[in-house]
């Protein structure tokens, strides 16, 4: 009797996930504890291991399949059954078989990140182990590409690598779009999904102006989770947003002064100010619990990190107990984990407050939405110059606009304003951030 492999509970509140990749083909032998597939569940990527020794008889949930906890993923022949069964030639599962001109082998998160850095197209990489693309496969492919480029002559220059996201490349292949003819709008001129979509729509208008084509892109688990949480936030909390300008002239000067011995970002400094301000304003560190108000004794602060396909909020635990340098190191570590797809669910839960910074994108002011179940979030705008009048005269000062959103059911306007004032004062006196 085949063993039915199901998706085990991983502690996430998300209802469904998606199969990212299978590491084994149908007919392959497996050992207990050996990873079989990767699943993107909510905002967490996890590997599902085989609980038994045996052989994969049938894959029930192929790559890109939407699955739920407890759903059957594959049928496994146990070791004794596999040994007694008639041996059949291994065939590739349709989920991971190669297609004409392209490879669909799965790749580890680290390998995908390295491929983006080296500009390597994963569809052109054949793994050395014949199953899963590793970092070494990426480095080998990049070296081979470099060696081939060095052999080209000046009369026949090597074609320049087109920098595009994986989704953009896939869309271009499916619709016959020449990426080299597009102007990228992403970071560093990288071609992103929207650029290819615009080219598809432009071509459609030229060929049939009255019948525009519509491309449907399935929602990823991360996008589903973001949509669900944002709608939940707006429908279950009375959200109030207030803004305040902070004079960060001294902060900018102090950061430049500290650079030789203390390299910190403005996000680090703002999180530090929030952590210290929360010590003084315990009424902000609260949650709505239907029949009570929950007061949280530990200050765990979330830091929003933008990814290519969404947003995650890793949590800096006990942020008020960390020095500025320790806080900076932890934020950098969590951000790297987030970009590599290696955050655990524990690293994204338990927050009491969130900081989201859009200043690096040139944004002045925006209205941040609460990250449930938290009751407060701070939006950070860019630093800009402004003429400010004082008793000594009129001077150019470096200013920053902060936007605080609170759940007005349990946080009143006056305490929220006092908390925001405290953050501004801390930013205006930067040496308190370093010593506090």
Brief write-up:
The protein has eleven helices and 18 strands.
List keywords for this structure.
436 residues, alpha+beta, OB fold (Dihydrolipoamide Acetyltransferase, E2P), Dihydrolipoamide Transferase, Chloramphenicol Acetyltransferase, 3 domains, six-stranded mixed beta sheet, four-stranded antiparallel beta sheet
Characterization of this structure:
By secondary structure, the chain is an alpha+beta fold. It has 3 domains: 3-84, Beta Barrel (OB fold (Dihydrolipoamide Acetyltransferase, E2P)), CATH 2.40.50.100; 109-207, Dihydrolipoamide Transferase, CATH 4.10.320.10; 222-435, Chloramphenicol acetyltransferase-like domain (Chloramphenicol Acetyltransferase, 2-Layer Sandwich). Helix content is 31%, strand content 24%. The chain contains 11 helices and 18 strands. It has helices at 79-84, 109-118, 135-150, 166-175, 193-207, 221-236, 249-258, 266-280, 324-339, 413-428, 431-435, and strands at 3-6, 16-22, 29-30, 35-41, 44-49, 54-59, 66-68, 72-78, 239-247, 286-288, 293-295, 301-303, 305-307, 310-312, 315-316, 353-357, 376-390, 393-407. Strands 9-18-17-16-12-15 form a 6-stranded mixed β-sheet, covered by helices on one side. The chain has a 4-stranded antiparallel β-sheet with strand order 1-8-6-3. It has a 4-stranded antiparallel β-sheet with strand order 5-4-2-7, with no helix packed on it. A hairpin with a 2-residue loop joins strand 4 and strand 5 (44-49). Helix 2 runs parallel beside helix 3 (135-150), helix 4 (166-175) runs parallel beside helix 5 and helix 8 packs across helix 9. The longest helix has 16 residues, at 135-150. It is globular, with a radius of gyration of 26 Å. It starts with a strand and ends with a helix. Mean pLDDT is 84; it is low at 88-103 and 152-156.
């Amino acid at each position: 009797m085949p063993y039915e492999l199901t998706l085990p509970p991983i502690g996430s509140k998300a209802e469904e996930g998606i199969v990212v990749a299978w590491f084994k083909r149908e007919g392959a032998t497996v050992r207990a504890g050996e990873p079989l597939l990767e699943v993107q569940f909510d905002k967490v990527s996890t590997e599902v291991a085989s609980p038994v020794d045996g052989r994969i008889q049938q894959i029930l949930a192929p790559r890109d399949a939407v699955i739920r906890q407890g759903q059957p993923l594959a049928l496994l022949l146990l070791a004794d059954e596999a040994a007694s069964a008639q041996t059949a030639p291994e065939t590739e599962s349709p989920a991971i078989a190669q297609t004409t001109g392209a490879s669909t082998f799965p790749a580890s998160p680290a390998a995908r990140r390295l491929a983006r850095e080296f500009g390597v197209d994963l569809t052109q990489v054949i793994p050395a182990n014949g199953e899963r693309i590793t970092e070494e496969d990426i480095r080998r492919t990049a070296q081979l590409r470099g060696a081939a480029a060095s052999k080209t002559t000046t009369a026949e220059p090597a074609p320049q690598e087109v920098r595009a996201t994986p989704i953009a490349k896939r869309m271009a292949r499916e619709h016959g779009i020449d990426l080299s003819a597009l102007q990228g709008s992403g970071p560093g001129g990288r071609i992103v999904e929207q650029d290819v979509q615009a080219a598809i729509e432009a071509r459609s208008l030229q060929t049939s102006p009255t019948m525009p084509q519509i491309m449907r892109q399935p929602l990823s688990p991360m996008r589903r989770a973001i949509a669900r949480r944002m709608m939940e936030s707006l429908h279950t909390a009375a959200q109030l947003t207030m803004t305040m300008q902070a004079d960060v002239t001294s902060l900018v000067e102090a950061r430049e002064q500290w650079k030789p011995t203390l390299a910190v970002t403005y996000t680090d400094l703002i999180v530090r100010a929030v952590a210290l301000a929360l010590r003084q304003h315990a009424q902000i560190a609260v949650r709505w619990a239907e029949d009570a108000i929950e007061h949280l004794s530990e200050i765990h602060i979330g830091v929003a990190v933008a990814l290519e396909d969404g947003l995650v909020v890793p949590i800096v635990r006990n942020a008020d107990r960390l020095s500025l340098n320790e806080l900076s190191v932890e934020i950098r570590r969590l951000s790297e984990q987030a970009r590599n797809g290696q955050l655990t669910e524990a690293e994204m839960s338990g927050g009491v407050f969130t900081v989201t910074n859009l200043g690096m994108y040139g944004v002045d002011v925006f209205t941040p939405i609460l990250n449930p179940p938290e009751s407060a979030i701070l939006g950070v705008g860019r630093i800009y110059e402004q003429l400010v009048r004082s008793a000594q005269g009129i001077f150019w000062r470096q200013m920053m606009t902060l936007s605080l959103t609170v759940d007005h059911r349990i946080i009143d306007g006056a305490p929220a304003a006092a908390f925001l004032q405290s953050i501004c004062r801390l930013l205006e006196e930067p040496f308190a951030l370093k010593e506090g």
